[in-house]
């Protein structure tokens, strides 16, 4: 069976299912769904056989492949004439096995071995948690799928995309330089000793906060092919995870919030004594009080010069187009230049302007996210499932432990609308 034949048969079955459901013939529709599952399993077996055959062609030097075994059982393949060593790409096998498992499809022997091995290693790391779905043991989401989920989230929240990221299991502690208690370098006479400089250090400790999201999918929707279902799952979970992390990095309440969450940049700047990194403006008032050229230059001046090279401007869509895009300099020239070629929607003062829904309404955040903020994934993302037979739906709950915090407030400045 070719891929074209498989897709043709599948489309015919799906059309029949939709017609039966529309006619209220749910039992017959369920039977057709079983045919779709059987067809998908058959196609997966064909793909695996082809992959194994191609692996043998690429990774062996044998010239006689007659009577070769069609099934890859492990490290060797035995035929009538010789034993040939082979290699298995466990990552690829696990990706396919994981996708089949969450879709309720049967795994072959090799897939089952690798699937169980990977998840046993994952659980032996000591990761235990409750997803709210008691009928399923969480399984480790393949890294390629996780990457797709985060990519979707980062497309929606560029601040999340720009921050520095680590994957350190457990608590991540980073030393940070908070200041010095003596002045800058100076010139000295030959006989004069150099004054000591005592650096002041603090620490950023990232523990972990539970990040979870469940989505419900109908059996009919789950019956799509793996090539269709995995991107669908990435898109759905990416959008949900993106909202949570995108908002948290911008304005999360930190450890004192209920429930606890990563500390947001706006929160950290507002918590500083006398808020030195915040500039305020009013909706109406004198030229010195409203948002203006001078307000933005004042905010930029608060960022340490060592961070300027990587700075960007972040604001939500309404703030960009109703406030930033209307500003002019003292020569009545627009400050905002539309430009989508640099990864944002425009430029101001040489910085890329990026639309980020996580930033508070009417606020404008300027800063170097890569140098000033750290995000850590303490526990890799996993997925648990729960079947609902009567409703013919299945819940998918993604779960991870993450944390984040500001490494240096001098990397940021916030222009904030005052009450």
Which series of helices and strands comes N to C?
Answer: HHEEHHEHHEEEEHHHEHEHEEEEHEEE
| Beta content | 15-25%
Terminal residue distance: 68 Å
Structural class determined from secondary elements: alpha+beta
Strands of the widest sheet, in order across it, are 8-16-13-9-12-11-10
Total number of helices? 12
Helicity level = 25-40%
Low-confidence stretches: 59-74, 76-80, 126-135
How would you describe this structure to a colleague?
This protein has helices spanning 3-22, 26-59, 90-102, 109-124, 143-156, 158-162, 219-222, 226-251, 265-271, 293-301, 317-322, 369-372; strands at 76-78, 83-85, 139-140, 164-166, 172-180, 199-206, 209-218, 278-281, 312-315, 337-338, 346-348, 351-355, 364-367, 373-388, 393-406, 412-417. With 419 residues, it is α+β, with helices and mostly antiparallel strands. It has a seven-stranded mixed β-sheet, with helices on both faces. A hairpin with a 2-residue loop joins strand 11 (346-348) and strand 12 (351-355). Mean pLDDT is 81; it is low at 59-74, 76-80 and 126-135.
Quick summary:
With 419 residues, this protein is of the alpha+beta class. The chain has helices at 3-22, 26-59, 90-102, 109-124, 143-156, 158-162, 219-222, 226-251, 265-271, 293-301, 317-322, 369-372; strands at 76-78, 83-85, 139-140, 164-166, 172-180, 199-206, 209-218, 278-281, 312-315, 337-338, 346-348, 351-355, 364-367, 373-388, 393-406, 412-417.
Features:
7-stranded mixed beta sheet, alpha+beta
Draw up the topology in text.
Layout: H1 3-22, H2 26-59, E1 76-78, E2 83-85, H3 90-102, H4 109-124, E3 139-140, H5 143-156, H6 158-162, E4 164-166, E5 172-180, E6 199-206, E7 209-218, H7 219-222, H8 226-251, H9 265-271, E8 278-281, H10 293-301, E9 312-315, H11 317-322, E10 337-338, E11 346-348, E12 351-355, E13 364-367, H12 369-372, E14 373-388, E15 393-406, E16 412-417
Parallel strand pairs: 4-14, 8-16, 9-12
Antiparallel strand pairs: 1-2, 3-14, 5-6, 7-15, 9-13, 10-11, 11-12, 13-16, 14-15
